[in-house]
Amino acid sequence: QVQLVESGGGLVQAGGSLRLSCTASGTIFIPNTMGWYRQAPGKQRELVAEVTNTGGANYADSVKGRFTISRDNAKNTVYLQMNSLKPEDTAVYYCNLKVRTLVFSEYWGQGTQVTVSS
Questions:
Q1: Which tens digit of pLDDT belongs to each residue from 7-62?
Q2: What is the DSSP letter of 43?
Q3: Looking at residue 98, what DSSP letter applies?
Q4: Nearest to 30 by CA among 107, 98, 79
Q5: Which residue from 61, 83, 86, 95 could staple onto 109, CB 3.0 to 4.6 Å apart?
């Protein structure tokens, strides 16, 4: 059974930084993609950034140049370094794992709140 555990959310002033971490436990097959989504109140969940097990990364336009995603395959951990945070970055951030073997599987973390004050 795969589980994702997130940490690192919190309250920060605009212009500040936070680092989110997410560790996957269980049997993790490759190829896979680990990433972060976010959901603000009244809005749909949206992709923030994701990275494959071979290092290919993809970012939402709204976070390019401010956020950096990275991963440690040996630890099954993905990180999201968030700099120059804006109030509009306020949301619940969810860790996501997609496993693409013969059967597609997707897993979600419980979410961590990020609040950016103006």
A1: 999 999 999 999 999 999 999 999 999 999 999 999 999 999 999 999 999 999 99
A2: S
A3: E
A4: 98
A5: 95
